[in-house]
Specification:
The structure is a single chain. By secondary structure, the chain is of the alpha+beta class. The chain folds into two domains: 75 residues, no CATH class; 112 residues, Chitinase A, domain 3, CATH 3.10.50.40. It contains six helices and seven strands. Strands 1, 2, 3, 4, 5, 6 and 7 form a seven-stranded antiparallel sheet that branches. A hairpin with a 4-residue loop joins strand 3 and strand 4. Helix 1 packs across helix 2. The longest helix is centred in the middle third of the chain and has 37 residues.
């Protein structure tokens, strides 16, 4: 395959992969879709532009500025000089990073306080047991099978929620149990699993330090979030 054909194939793959997951709503103020040229080159160029804009918009989030982005695109297409210096770009980046860090730090502090309050109230509920680590659990169903050790593999069904009840993960919803090593999961899960026997079903409440802590996990679990799981231990598979 020639270099030009390879480049076109890579561009096509980028466009299609990005379009598949980045179909964003129009920028506020845009009242109608842009005209797309009918030629193959026009359609491919449109797709590349859409993919690029979608990717940049997703990366910058609320810091994305459509006016600035369009100005940069137009200057590049007209082969004009960059209108900002490297130092100005670096300063802008540092300002955005500092603002995001401050916002995330404030959110983490608020979440930690909310988690402490939630768990303190929950600890007083009838049937809730609190361990020395701060793990809280309630027995929903008792089994009489084997208990896992720290090196065991286990098969479980589970549903994970935030303190407000919103579900962020569920093997039950997927209709397929999960198998993993006890030592491969978060600290709160490791402790809870070793308290269980096959056939047990527990509801567990994890303080942030036994879950994902100040880093959170992806877009679904914010920093310093208390987590609630319903866990069924189906089988212990010893190594």
């Amino acid at each position: 395959m020639s270099n030009s054909a390879t480049a076109l194939a890579l561009l096509s793959a980028l466009v299609w992969l990005t379009l598949a997951g980045c179909a964003e709503p129009p920028v506020e103020g845009d009242e109608q879709a842009a005209e797309v040229p009918e030629s193959a080159a026009g359609r491919m160029s449109y797709g590349a532009g859409f993919a690029l804009a979608s990717s940049v918009r997703e990366q910058l989030g609320e810091d994305f500025d459509a006016v600035g982005f369009r100005a940069g695109i137009l200057d590049a297409l007209a082969d004009r000089e960059l209108q900002v210096t490297d130092a100005q770009l670096e300063q802008a980046r540092d300002e955005i990073v500092a603002r995001r860090d401050a916002s995330q730090g404030a959110q983490a502090a608020d979440n930690l306080e909310a988690a402490r309050t939630f768990l303190a109230e929950n600890a007083n509920r009838e049937g809730v047991i609190v361990t020395d680590s701060g793990l809280q659990y309630e027995v929903l169903q008792s089994g009489d099978g084997a208990s896992p050790g720290p090196e065991s593999q286990v098969v479980t069904h589970y549903t994970g929620r935030l303190a407000d009840g919103s579900v962020f993960d569920s093997s039950e919803a997927r209709g397929e149990p999960a198998q993993f090593g006890v030592d491969q999961v978060i600290q709160g899960w490791q402790e809870a699993l070793q308290l269980m026997q096959e056939g047990d079903r527990l509801r567990i409440w994890l303080p942030p330090e036994l879950a994902y802590g100040s880093r959170g996990a992806g877009a679904d679990i914010p920093p310093n979030a208390a987590l609630v799981f319903e866990v069924e231990l189906i089988e212990v598979v010893d190594p």
